[in-house]
Structures are given as C-alpha cells and as structure tokens.
Amino acid sequence: MNHTEVLTRYTANFVDELAMNGLTDAVISPGSRSTPLALTIAEHESIKEWVIIDERSAAFFALGMAKKTKRPVALICTSGTAAANYYPAIVEAYYSRVPLIVLTADRPHELRDVGAPQAIEQIKLYGDYVKWFQEMALPEAAPDMLKYARSKAARAFFMAKEGNPGAVHLNFPFREPLVVDFELDHLWGKVSQTSYLPTFEGEKHLTSNQLTELSQLLQNKAKGLIVCGPQTDRYLAKAVTKLASKWELPIIADPLSQLRSGEHKKQHIIDGYDAFLRNETIREELKPDFIIRIGAMPVSKAYLFFVKQHMDALQIVIENERGFREPTGNKTEFIFANARAVCEALTEVDNHTQYRKEWLRKWQQMNAISKKHFSRHTENPITEGEAMRGLIHAIPNHSSIFVGNSMAVRDLDTFFLTTEKHIEVLANRGANGIDGMISSGMGAAVHGSRLTLVLGDLSFFHDMNGLHAAMHYGISATVLLMNNNGGGIFSFLPQANDKRHFEALFGTPLNIDFQHVIAMYGGHYDRPQSEEEVKMAVQASYQRNGLSVIEVKTDREANAIWHRDKWKAIEEEIVSGEE
C-alpha cells in the first residue's frame, strides 16, 4: 500500500467518524499542510465545509456557529502561526463553554526544531484552554490504526460537548505528498450506523434528602431573590418563573438569560434593575436574606455592587455542571445539578416560610419606575439607547440577537424589556472581548432564525474582514452599528476625567467612513437619524437577502449625559417615593 492510499484511508476514517458522531459543519482555513483534512472534509457528503481565509475570523465564525447550534463545529488549519490565530476564539470557547474540535496540521517530527519553514511548537499550543489534547500518530492504514483514528475522532466529539462544553485540540503530523485519492474502494471504511465509542450521559438531579436539606437552608428567610444570569437553556424560563410564582419571589433576569422573551409568565421578572441598583441607599433597602443564582454572573455592574454590599446573605449558585463562577468571593453554596430540574423539584417542596408579598411588590414598583423612564421619548439627537429600543420594537418574532460587548450589551440590558416575542440572545461573554464579533455573528447567522448583530464601531473595525463570509456565502444578516467614534464605555469610567490623555488612550476616535467598507463587501447601507427611522430601517432589512448594515452615529459625551440623567431621575423618584 503506497503513501497516498495510507494517508487517504487514515484521514477518511477519522473524518467519517466525526460525521458518524454528529459533526455537520467544519470551518477550513486554507493551507497546504492541512490538505488531507481539508479535501476529505469537503468530500464527505454529511459535512458542510465553510472556507474562511483569515484564521482568526475562521475561529470566531466557528465559535458563533457552535453557540447558535449548541453542537461541536470543527476547525481545520495548516501548520505554523495559522494555528496561533485560533487562540482568541479558543479562549472565548473555554470561558463561555462552547464546543469546538480544533484540527491543526503539523510538520512531521523530523521537520520540527530544525529550522524548517512554517514549523512552530504546536504540542499543547492552547495550554489549559482546551479540554483535551491529542498528538495524532503518523498516518498508517493497518486495521488497528484505522480503529485508532476512529476512536480519537469519537472521543474528540464527545469531549467537546460533555459536561461544560469547550474546545478540544488534535494535532496531525503529515508527510508529503499531501494529496489524497478519493477513487479508492471502500473509501470511508466499514459502514456503521453508530459511533465507534457510543456514550450515554444522564442529567444530574438532587436526591430527596438533598432537596430537604436545601429547603431547610431557606427556612425562616423571607426576603429571597432569584437571579438568572447568562445561560442557554430555552426551557428554563417556565420552570424558574413557576418557582418564583409559588414562592412569591422577584427574578433578576439578565438579557442573556433567555427569560425576557417568550410566552412564559413574566410578572415576577425584574428587567430594569441595572438602573435602580446603582444607588447605594436603594441597594440597602433591598437587602435580601438569600439569593439563588442560575447561570453565569449577570452583565450588570450595579448587580455586582448589590451582591458585594450584601455579602452576608445566603447565596446559592446552581450550575448544570461543575464550575465555580463567583467573582465576588462571597461565601456560596454550590449546587451541581440540572437547573431546570432543581427548579421543578423546589416548586413541589412544601416550604413553610411565608414569603412577603410586600417584598416582591417593592421590586416590581421600582422596576416599573425604571421602565417608565426608559420608555420615554426625547427630541434630542438619537442616542445608542434609543437605537437599541427601536431595534427591540422592530425585531420580528422567532429571531436572534448577537450582541457585542462594552456599551452594546449594557444598552441591551437596559432596553430589552420583557416581550412575548421569542428572541434568542447570544454574546461572547466568556472573555468579554471585542475581537471577532462580526465573524461570530456571521457564524451564528447561517443556521436557524434570522439574526441581528449589534455592536460598536471599535468592535466593527476590529473584525471588518468578518464581513467577507457574508458576501462569499450570501449570508442574510442585519448589523446595527452604534458608531460613537471611539470607545464609548470609557466615557462612563473615571478615566473620562483625564482630559489630557483621554481621547488618545481611551476615546480612540477612528474617523472612518464605514459606508465604503460596507459597499466593498456588497452590503446594503442605511444611516437613520431617529428612533423611528431605526425601526423602519430594521424592518426593511429583514425583507431583503444578504448583508444589511444600519449605522447609527451618536456623540459619546452626549450619550453618557443622557444615560446619567435617566439614572438620576429613576433614583430620585424611587428614593422620594413619588409615583
């Protein structure tokens, strides 16, 4: 058996096993050393290949796709720094728990550390940011080695999605020649209907004794609070709102909690907390006896201050899998079990504590004041908050938002109020970076509901080549670009008081006309001047195919003043007790 046949059969068995386990999408960064993997994936009828030229963009594209589909996506690249460009997305995958299967091609062992071109140290390149690493054996076609290839593929797929999902990394040393032969008989090996390593994984549930112990912890604690941070279980909403109704508790619902939209009951959902929890006096008035948190820490810094201020309150964090996401350092009881199942079980528990209706009513009244102020229209030049409000009004039912970091996600927190629409919200809130946002959004846009990407001008600038995927594959997506000519979030921080260095180091104005960029990538461009025009532009974008970019130009300083005025008015009304 010659080299080409050996290479072909080894690679084909590996790729076929990925498909057998459920891989449907692979993102390929073009290169020579990865030829066997790239060609074989492109040849397999069960896998859709996406060719993204820039490696950093490719990795975030795969990340966005995996976030949306909630299943592993493969990434393939050649040797050298191509693999290093995957690093930022792999870091994000680690912290936001997204399954990726990273397949890097490498020089064979004799060409490493000898000055050969395009050869870097790729062994455990991503350190602890991957769940599992495997240096693959050099290709062989003996029956045991084909079984080896399949077992590694099956394990890679399982490891990427088991427990807390994340990236896995397999490094493939390939000798030349690199071209494979698809004319071989029985190319894909033995035909099978199941995985080489079939696995069955059950959900974690609390025992009756554990439920009793948890119930006893909450005895005689009347002022409780449920907090739902960023999480992806779309079925959690009904379970947690039913629990809140039974126990008469308010629910702080992060915009990424998937609780603010849908048909479940929302009387207990508090969505305006970020505004009134900024005030220390109000935070003290709302001192809780206990907090039950599900999901990651909420986006809101005001909520972070609230938790730190009440560090003596009993805090319980429910995680579906093991993980210690508690940045305040407060004493915390961790429950590692399926959050939806825990809520359903607690609803049936006979808890004798009489939760105070006035406690719930107080949260609801403050929430109503916040929503009233943020719903008022002004005649001033459009702000980012008003643009976000226009988007939420216009976005269709059963659609998705991929929101950027910095000010974008914070304005979503403020203006994404409860709605009967079904709106899935995605974001890169693992490492909270601004890199790869367009690519992540485009990756998320290729499957499922129509997607709107909301981000600032620095995030847009940082990943403009991510627009190439939209042009190349005809992806239909809407981008709401908030352009305040720089880093708008810094206007809310103490650095803004340093007038000498602020603009150069933090404001960082770009002074770019993005209309030319959008035209270069074949997108449709709009620049609305008011909230009503934003609504019309957004609605029109959903009626056309391809890329639509809606740019809203705002003033950083005026935007900060507008937000502060709103927060001040809300605080004053709550503190004074006026309606």
Could you give the order of strands across the largest sheet? 2-1-3-4-6-5
Assembly classification: single chain
Please give the count of helices. Answer: 22
The CATH homologous superfamily of the largest domain: Thiamin diphosphate (ThDP)-binding fold, Pyr/PP domains
Sum up the overall morphology in one term.
Answer: globular
Q: Indicate the CATH architecture of the largest domain.
A: 3-Layer(aba) Sandwich
What fold name stands as the CATH topology of the largest domain? Rossmann fold
Work out the number of β strands. Answer: 18
The share of residues in extended strands comes to 15-25%
Main CATH class of the largest domain: Alpha Beta
Count structural domains: 3
C-alpha Rg (nearest Å): 26 Å
Distance between the termini: 84 Å
Unreliable residue stretches: none
Percentage of residues in helical conformation: 40-55%
Computed structural class: alpha/beta
Mean pLDDT: 93
Largest sheet: 6 strands, parallel
Explain what you see:
It is a single chain. The protein folds into three domains: 3-173, Rossmann fold (3-Layer(aba) Sandwich), CATH 3.40.50.970; 208-370, Rossmann fold (3-Layer(aba) Sandwich), CATH 3.40.50; 376-568, Thiamin diphosphate (ThDP)-binding fold, Pyr/PP domains (Rossmann fold). The protein contains 22 helices and 18 strands. Helix content is 40%, strand content 16%. The longest helix has 21 residues, at 556-576. Helix 1 (3-21) runs parallel beside helix 6 (143-161) and helix 3 (55-69) crosses helix 16. By secondary structure, it is of the alpha/beta class. Belongs to the TPP enzyme family. MenD subfamily.
